[in-house]
Amino acid sequence: MLEMKTRCERCGTALAAGAQAYICSFECTFCPACSTQVFRHVCPNCQGELVLRPRRRPQEPNHAVA
Fold first, then answer.
1. Across the beta sheet with 51-52, what order do the strands follow?
2. Residues 58, 46: Cα–Cα separation, whole Å
3. Which pLDDT tens digit goes with each residue over 19-45?
4. 36 φ, ψ to 5°?
5. What CATH number does domain 1-56 carry, 3.30.420, 2.60.40, 3.30.40, 3.30.230?
């Protein structure tokens, strides 16, 4: 399962689970400003493409089925 990191790896900006963030295939995670303005959608660690991180739907409580 995708690890939802909570901070930009470059500037430390908080990234909530529903917040927009960018990741590479190794799950390096960056805020939109760093991803677009600084790195221009190229991961500085692996040189892979930085793409929008998918959002997770809020989990609903499990309902027991009798």
1. 29-30, 22-23, 51-52
2. 31
3. 899 999 999 999 999 999 999 999 999
4. -90, -45
5. 3.30.40
Give the β-pairing of 29-30 and 22-23: antiparallel
Could you tell me whether strands 51-52 and 22-23 are parallel, antiparallel, or unpaired per DSSP bridges?
antiparallel
- Around Cβ 21, how many Cβ atoms within 10 Å? 25
* Spans of all domains in the chain: 1-56
CA distance 4 to 15: 9
Spell out the residues 6+ positions from residue 51 whose beta carbon is closer than 8 angstroms to its own.
22, 23, 24, 41
Whole-number pLDDT of residue 18: 80
